[in-house]
Amino acid sequence: MSPSRTCSWLIVLSVLLVCTTANGDRLKVGYYDKTCPDVQQIVQSVMAFRVGRDQSVAPAVLRLFFHDCFVDGCDGSVLLDETPFFESEKDATPNANSLHGFDVIDEIKSYVEHACPATVSCADILALASRDAVALLGGPSWKVQLGRKDSRVANRTGAEYGLPAPNSTLAELINLFKQYDLDARDMAALSGAHTIGTARCHHYRDRVYGYNGEGGADIDPSFAELRRQTCQSAYDAPAPFDEQTPMRFDNAYYRDLVGRRGLLTSDQALYGYGGPLDHLVKMYSTNGEAFAKDFAKAIVKMGKIPPPHGMQGEIRLSCSKINR
User: Fold this and answer.
1) Is 242 annotated among the ligand-binding residues?
2) 54 known ligand binder
3) Are 97 and 189 contained in the same domain?
4) Known catalytic membership, residue 100
5) CB atoms near residue 180 (< 10 Å)
6) 164 marked as part of a ligand binding site
7) Into which family does the record put it (predicted)?
8) pLDDT tens-digit series, residues 24-79
9) Distances 24 to 20, 38, 100, 124, 294 between C-alpha atoms, Å
């Protein structure tokens, strides 16, 4: 083969590698060390201020990250407003009137743009803000791998059907997480994000009422009655996932599962069927350090879920709309 032909093949191969390399494959810690060295400090400062004023900001931002990554990868698509060309993921059934924290990401983005114009993606800002959300409520910290690009389109259908549902069975949860190369241990650890935040009555109503109005065999009767009282106040009345320490990132969520006091059907699905998952939940319930370690490891893994093959990304100047 001639040198010129070899060179041509190398060029083609290089182009193919660039085109097929997904977000998750090129992420690295320190991605912005030279181009935007203050980005992590900016994100942490805004998050500390906002969570200091309102702790509910932390679970809201963390939930945004989950709902972003589980729909076409961690590409900031959940942050996009609707346009004439695509429907917003914000308006999908699992997200409508329940996702919050968009203004926090927008505020961080404005400071980052001032410091480093057109450099840091909204997807990366969301990943960093999620890490800080957990740490600010007493949870673990981790090194965030960066280098994501922002999607130029949202996937409303994916948001309708690609997210864990409040009434998901264990088999459904395992299969859903498996699609993203997240195993049962990852799933159990990531579910611990429900140690902070709240859910509305229409999400846990079926669990606490059951078929006979008194809950089922897998729910503590006194807990079911308590949550029914909450539901009686309003159809969308919120209740904490963890009633003991609702705004502290700890392992109390798993103690609730062992006590059959999981708020959602999909929460309690992690415990009570026997086998390795029961042993894991019991271990987390007594060993907070093990849970923290596994959660940090699993969320780094989740943060590498790539966008669809061939997606053209960008660095959005505004997180709610694509660049023109």
Assistant:
1) yes
2) no
3) no
4) no
5) 18
6) yes
7) Belongs to the peroxidase family. Ascorbate peroxidase subfamily.
8) 458 999 999 999 999 999 999 999 999 999 999 999 999 999 999 999 999 999 99
9) 11, 23, 25, 12, 19
